[in-house]
Amino acid sequence: MSQSSVNIEEVDICKYGYYCRLKILRTPLNPSRRFFGCKASNENGGYGYFRWIDPPFENADETFLMNRFIDGQNSIDRLKRKVKELEEERDSLKFQLNENEEKMMVLNKKLKEVKLQRDWKNVKFNRVVIVFLCLLTIKWFFNIV
Predict the structure, then answer these.
(1) What is the spatial distance between Cα 10 and Cα 19, in angstroms, rounded to a whole number?
(2) Which residues form the GRF-type domain (predicted)?
(3) Rg of the Cα trace of the chain?
(4) What are phi and psi of 21, to 5 degrees?
(5) Contact 56, 65 (CB under 8 A)
């Protein structure tokens, strides 16, 4: 298998038995160059194992570079589609939020009406009780006198 056709689904294992992750360099000398690197890097007291997947760009053939460009374009297209999906989801959630706010306003209005009706019933009941007590008081007063 040539270096330009490495299957990035495969994993690499270092001499300590660690699975090496696929990493991508972001340096000016090796922009977007992929490699497997051990988690026990030199900075962490390890030995710094790594294996290049991509050849250096100055040694890369035109087909490899074209494939990398196409892979990059596909990634950009996937990200654009994801952004569009997220924007559509955001718009849908905004619409649902507006609908729910309208429903909440209607429910608050109904709640106020129910409270008013309950309060009015309490006032009516209180009036009846007061009238009844007044009648009892008057009767009691005239029975005493």
Answers:
(1) 10
(2) 14-56
(3) 39
(4) -80, 155
(5) no
Residues 6 or more apart whose Cβ sits within 8 Å of residue 53: 3, 6, 8, 22, 34, 35, 36
* pLDDT of the residue at 4: 42
In the chain, the amino acid numbered 74 is N
Tell me: pLDDT of 87 over 90.
yes
pTM for this one? 0.38
Kind and range of the H or E element at 35?
strand 31-37
pLDDT in tens, 1-52: 334 444 555 667 777 777 777 777 777 776 677 888 777 666 656 566 777 7
Task: Quote the distance between the C-alpha of residue 72 and its chain's center.
Answer: 25
